[in-house]
Design brief:
With about 180 residues, this protein is α+β, with helices and mostly antiparallel strands. Helix content is about 20%, strand content about 20%. The protein binds zinc ion.
Length: about 180
């Protein structure tokens, strides 16, 4: 091994377990293998089974904060979600309907105080532009239950350059070892 290769190998070591994808091919691999982050035998809903409930039913079903964000397009206070510090392998599902939307490998620390992801499980969100703050932002909703999750920006890390800024109360974490949070 020449010296340069050896130094590169050493530099790569700390990141082996949780490497950020280097190109779109690796991002696609992450999108395709999301089921491997579920606990074995876990059963989760699919986007093809819509969940439609009345406003009253949602209010009864969801904790107040989750109801406010998912059904009323609210925003949680930055830095309040325990999911900001969640680093275990697993799947992030919609808190409204249980649809898996991200995996732990898609998460990055954006420093914004909201759980952030550079890509999503394919086909789980629909988009809508909003003009709530003067400049347009792209808001995204769960495709299964219509719940509001957050906004996507184009200042995320390469290669996707996407930052899916998600309210923690709109998510529930399913750890690969079977524990939920
Ligand atoms: Zn949902």
């Amino acid at each position: 091994m020449d010296r340069r290769v050896f130094v590169l190998a050493l530099a790569a070591l700390p990141f082996c377990a949780h490497a950020r994808p280097r190109n779109m091919k690796e991002v696609e691999a992450l999108q395709q293998n999301w089921k491997s982050f579920l606990p074995s035998g876990a059963s989760v809903p699919s986007p093809a089974e819509p969940l439609k409930l009345s406003d009253d039913e949602w209010r009864k079903r969801l904790p107040g904060q989750s109801y406010h964000v998912l059904r009323k397009e609210g925003t949680e206070r930055a830095g309040t979600s325990p999911l900001n510090d969640e680093k275990r392998p697993g799947v992030y599902a919609c808190a409204g309907c249980g649809l898996p939307v991200f995996t732990s490998e898609m998460k990055f620390d954006s420093g914004t105080g909201w759980p952030s992801f550079f890509t999503t499980i394919p086909g789980v969100f629909e988009m809508k532009k909003d003009f709530f703050l003067i400049y347009p932002r792209t808001e995204y909703h769960c495709i299964r239950c219509g719940g509001h999750h957050g906004h996507v920006f184009d200042d995320g890390p390469p290669p996707t350059n996407q930052r899916w800024c998600n309210n923690g109360v709109a998510l529930k974490f399913i750890a690969k070892d079977g524990k939920t949070a």
